[in-house]
Predict the 3D structure of the following.
Amino acid sequence: MITAEVIKDLHSSDLTYISGSLQSVATKVLPPELADKDVLVFVSKADQLEAALKAQAPIVVAHKSLSLPAHGSQSLPNDTGTTFFQTGSVQLAMAAILPLFDGKMNRFNQEEKIHPSACIHPTAHLGKNVYVGPFAVIGEHVRIGDYATIGAHTVIECYATIGDHTLIHPQVFVGAYCELGAHCEIHPHTTIGADGFSFAPTREGVHKKIPQIGKVVIGDWVELGANCAIDRAALTETRIGNGTKMDNFCHIAHNVIIGEHNVMAAGFKIAGSSTVGSHCMFGGDTVVSDHVTIVDKVIVGGKSGVSNDILKPGAYAGYPVEPLRDNMKTLATFGNGNLPRMRKDIARIIKHLGLKEE
Amino acid sequence: MITAEVIKDLHSSDLTYISGSLQSVATKVLPPELADKDVLVFVSKADQLEAALKAQAPIVVAHKSLSLPAHGSQSLPNDTGTTFFQTGSVQLAMAAILPLFDGKMNRFNQEEKIHPSACIHPTAHLGKNVYVGPFAVIGEHVRIGDYATIGAHTVIECYATIGDHTLIHPQVFVGAYCELGAHCEIHPHTTIGADGFSFAPTREGVHKKIPQIGKVVIGDWVELGANCAIDRAALTETRIGNGTKMDNFCHIAHNVIIGEHNVMAAGFKIAGSSTVGSHCMFGGDTVVSDHVTIVDKVIVGGKSGVSNDILKPGAYAGYPVEPLRDNMKTLATFGNGNLPRMRKDIARIIKHLGLKEE
Amino acid sequence: MITAEVIKDLHSSDLTYISGSLQSVATKVLPPELADKDVLVFVSKADQLEAALKAQAPIVVAHKSLSLPAHGSQSLPNDTGTTFFQTGSVQLAMAAILPLFDGKMNRFNQEEKIHPSACIHPTAHLGKNVYVGPFAVIGEHVRIGDYATIGAHTVIECYATIGDHTLIHPQVFVGAYCELGAHCEIHPHTTIGADGFSFAPTREGVHKKIPQIGKVVIGDWVELGANCAIDRAALTETRIGNGTKMDNFCHIAHNVIIGEHNVMAAGFKIAGSSTVGSHCMFGGDTVVSDHVTIVDKVIVGGKSGVSNDILKPGAYAGYPVEPLRDNMKTLATFGNGNLPRMRKDIARIIKHLGLKEE
C-alpha cells in the first residue's frame, strides 16, 4: 500500500507532483487497460490517460506531453479524485517508483539473516547486513560487501569478492578469485568464472587443455540475466565494465574486455579476446568473433555476426555486418522470393543476349 | 519385466492386441536392429519386422500397415512365438507403453518422501504424496499440489504454486509468485521467473533498472527442457498455455503470451510482449522479435528470424521469414556458389551491353 | 612459486631447457606486455621476447623460431639473468607448464574430503581419494572412480558412473544411468541426461510425451563447458567420444553419436540422431539438423547450418553449408550493399533490353 506522499517523498528528478490528494493510495501497478480503483497507472498516450481516469485510478503518472484534467491546488484533491505526477520519461518514472511495489527483498527475508544451513568458510569475511540463503557455499577468504545478498544454493569459491549491495540470486556460480563490484544483480544459473575454452592440438589431433589461471572482474551496477556464462581469462582478466546489462543466455569468452553502460540482449555471444567499448547495444542472438574490436556507441541489430572490427560509432546489422540502413535493404532484397527471381532474370538475360554460360 | 498382458491391460486406444501369448515377457525396449529374446520392439517397416522376428523378440508392436505373420487364435501363441500388437501410430504406441519401462520415478524414491535436509518454510502447503528431494528450498506460502515431485536442490520462492502431479527435476528455479499448472515436467537448470530485461536510459546513457513486479503463469501438461529461462512480466504475466512443450535452451522474455499445444525446438527465443497462438511449431534456434503476433497453426523452420507478424496459418522459414516453399528456393539460390556467380554474370552483361557502372 | 628446475623436471617432450639458472623463480604467468621480475612469460614473437628481457622476466619459454640471446653453459646463468626454455608449440608448452600455476584443486580442498553435508546413498561406491563438496547429492548405486572430484551442489542420480580422475564442478546434473569416462571435466550448470525432446502428436494436435529410457555415455578426457545440455537417448545411448571438447551452451540432442577429439565452440547445437565423426571442429553458434551424418576431419565455420550430410573431409561454412572457400565469396557478395545493387542492375538491364517483367 503506497500513498502519493511516499512517491512525492522520493524526490526523484524524473517525477513532478502536479495535483491531487497525497493520501491517495495504490496497492498495485498495472497497465492502463487494467486500471482500477486501487491501481497506480503509468500513461504515455491520451487514450491510456482516459482509461485510467474512467477506472478512477488513484494515482496516475503521466508523460508531460499529455494535458491533465482540471487541476485543483497543489495540496488539494483535483476534480477527478486522481493524484497526478508528471514525468519526462515514463520509463525513468517506472524505474523510480516500481521499487516501492517490488517485494524482491522479501524473497530473501528469513529469521536469521545468515541461514544456519549455509556452508561458510571460517576465513570468509562477511560485511554488515549481509543475507546468506539456505545451502549457499562461501569458500576460503571470500569477501562479501555490506548489504550484499547471496541467494540459496549459490556457490562462491575461494578468494572471490562481492561488492556492497550486490544481489546474487539463487543457484549462481562465482568461481575462485573472481571479483564482482557493488550494486550488481546476478540471476539464477549464471556461471561466472568457468574456464575459458582453450586447447593445444598435438600432431596426433589430440587437444591438450591449457589451464585458465586468470579471473573475471565485473564492475559496479552490472546486471547479468539468467543462465549466462562469463569465462575466466587465460592469464589475466575477462572484464565487464560498470553499468553494463546483459539479458539471459549471454556468453562472454575468456579475455574479453567489455566497457561501461552497454546493453546486450538475450543470446549475445562474444568470442575470446574481443573488446567492446562503452554505451553500445547488441540485439538478441548476435555473435562477435574472436579478436574483434568494437568502439563506443555502436548499435548492432539482432541475429548479426560481427567478424571484423567496428571502428566507427553507428548502427549496424547483418552477417557479414554492414551499416543498419544497408542491411535493411539487403534483407528486403533477400526475402520475398527475390533471390530466385533475380537468378531467373539473369538466366533469361543471358539467353536473350546469346551469351555463353560460364 | 513387463508381460504382454500388462500392455493389453493399458486399454490404450492406440494399441490393439493381435495374437500371441499374454505371458510373453520383455525386460527392455530397443530399436529393431538391436532386437533380442528379451526385447520389446516397435516396428514401422517390413525389414524392421523381419529383424524383430529373426531375433525372436517376445513382443512386437507393429504399425497397422505391416502384415503380420501366421496368426494363431487371439488367446493362443502364434507360430512365431512372438506376441503382436498393432497401432495406427508407432509414436503414440511408444507414448503409451514406454512409461512401463521408464524408471523415472525411482530416481526420486527415498526412505522419507520429504527428505529431512530440505528447507521448507512452515507456512508452505504441501499436498498429499509429495516428494521433496535433498536440499530443496521451499519458501513462504508456497503451495505444492498432490503427487507433485520437487527434485534435489530445486528452489521455489515465496508464494509460488505448483500443480498436482507436476514433476520438477533437480536444480530448477521457480521465482516468487510464479504459477505452474498440473502434470508439468521441468528439467534441470531451468529458470522460471527471473526478471524481464528492462532498463530506462538516462540522458547520460546510464541504464536504470525497471523492477519487474509481474510473474510467470504456466498451464497444465507443459514441458520445459533443461537450461531454459522464462522471464517474469514487467507488471502482469508471462504466460505459457496448456500442453506446450519446449526443448532445451528456450528463452521466453517478459510479457510474452504463448498459447496451447505448441512445440518449440532447442534454442527458440522470443522477445518481450510477443504472442504466439496455439498448435504452432518452431524449429531450433529460431528467434522471434518483440511485439510480434503469430496466429494459430503456424510452423516456422529452424534458424529463422521472425520480425513481423504472421497472421496466416502455414509453414514459414528464413530471415526475413517467408513462406517455407519460397525459403527453400531462396536457400537453394543462396548456397552452392550461386550468389558470386550471379554477381559476375551481372557485371558481364553490363560490360557486354556497354552500360555505365552505377 | 615455481623454479625453473620444477619445469625442467616435467620432462615434457614439448619443452627443452636451454640455459640459465634452474633456481630462477616465477610466482605467476602473464602475457609478455605485463612481464615483470617474478613473471614467467611465453613468447612467440621477437618483440615479445624483447619485452620479457627488458622486464627481466626470470623464466622465458620461447618458440624455437626465435633466437635467444647470449647463452651461458647449460647449468649456469646466461648473461641476461633469464632462464630459457624452447618449444615447438607455445600452446603445448602452456598446456605442460600452466598446471603448476593453476590452483584449481585448491578450490575443492576441505578439512574432510567427503564434506559432511553431502547426501550420499549408502549403496553408492566411492573410489579412493574422492572429493565430494558441500550439499552434493549422490544417488543409489552410483559409482565414482578413484581421484574423482564432485563439486558442491552437484547431483548424480542413481546408477550413474563417473570415471577415475574426472572433475565435476559445482551445480552439475548427471542423470540416472549416465556414464562419464575418466579424466573428464564438466563445468557448472551443465545438464547431462535430461530427457530427449520427443512427443507423439494426436489427431487433436495434443503432444503426448514419449518417455526417454536411454542414457548418455561420455568417453575419457571429455570437457564440457558451462551451461551445456546433453540429452539422454530415447532407447539406447547418446554418445560423446574420447577427447571431445565442448565450449559453453552446447546442446546435444537424443541419440546423437559424436566421435573422438572433436572441438565444438560455444552454442553448437545438434539435433536428434545425427552423427559426427572424429577430429572435427565446429565454430560458434553452428546448428546441425537431425539425422545428418558428418564424417571425420570436417571443419564447419561459425553461425553455419548443416541440414545435409557432409561426406567429405574439408572446411565448410554457411547456411546452407558450402565449402568454406565458396562461402567466403558468398558472404563477400551478400554484404556491402551488393544484393540490392545487383537487384537494381538486373532491373536496369531488363529495362534497357526492353524485356518484359516476369
The first strand of chain B starts at residue 2 and ends at 3. Chain B has five helices and 39 strands. The longest helix of chain B spans residues 338-353. Chain B has three domains: 2-102, 109-323, 324-358.
